[in-house]
């Protein structure tokens, strides 16, 4: 009997290679158990990637990059602690960052990963734009400011972004010889 430990393999896509980090983030301990790829940060049961380079991306472009790289999604945020964690990994501060909150077809707000919207952190006076059906140029997408508060903004604005996906889990199997 042979027992082999395995971890799921996460393959980096082309978009991740062109968005490499150049600096180290501040040393802020984060919860998590380290089951994330290089360049991703562990927090709770998820891995996070903050793109914070000088070149920004529209919300649809950012979402596409998150989905292309490790099958993630723009980050959904469910607590004040998660806001602070994301603020710490967005350390270069070139841009505000897109998160996965967007207008849904029922004129409300919803996370792209379909998790529930129980926590919000709107900046004072936000959200302040009406729903514009089918027009990604209006304020139907949400960015997070450097202070952690949220703003509805024009989806074609160029921003950084934060991706999130579930951590891999360690598994093992037994190979039995006949």
From TrEMBL:
Question: Matching Gene3D superfamilies, A to Z?
Answer: Mannose-Binding Protein A, subunit A
| Keywords, in A-Z order | Disulfide bond
Domain named C-type lectin is located at: 43-164
InterPro entries per UniProt: C-type_lectin-like, C-type_lectin-like/link_sf, C-type_lectin/snaclec_domain, C-type_lectin_CS, CTDL_fold
Where does the source fall among the domains of life?
Eukaryota
Identify one Pfam family in the record. Lectin_C
Q: What PANTHER family would the database entry show?
A: MANNOSE, PHOSPHOLIPASE, LECTIN RECEPTOR RELATED
- UniProt protein name: C-type lectin domain-containing protein
According to its UniProt entry, this protein's organism is Cyprinus carpio
């Amino acid at each position: 009997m042979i027992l082999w430990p395995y971890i799921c393999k996460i393959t980096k896509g082309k978009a991740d290679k062109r968005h490499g980090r150049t600096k180290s983030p501040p040393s802020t301990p984060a919860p998590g158990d380290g089951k994330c790829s290089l360049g991703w940060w562990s927090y709770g049961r998820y891995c996070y990637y903050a793109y914070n380079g000088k070149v920004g991306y529209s919300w649809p472009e950012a979402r596409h990059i998150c989905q292309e790289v490790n099958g993630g999604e723009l980050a959904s945020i469910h607590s004040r602690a998660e806001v602070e964690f994301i603020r710490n990994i967005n350390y270069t501060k070139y841009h505000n960052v897109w998160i996965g909150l967007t207008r849904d077809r029922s004129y409300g707000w919803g996370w792209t990963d379909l998790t529930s919207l129980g926590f919000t952190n709107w900046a004072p006076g936000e959200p302040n734009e009406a729903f514009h059906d089918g027009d990604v140029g209006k304020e139907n997408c949400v960015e997070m400011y450097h202070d952690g508060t949220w703003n509805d903004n024009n989806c074609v604005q160029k921003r950084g972004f934060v991706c999130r996906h579930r951590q891999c889990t360690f598994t093992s199997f037994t190979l039995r010889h006949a």
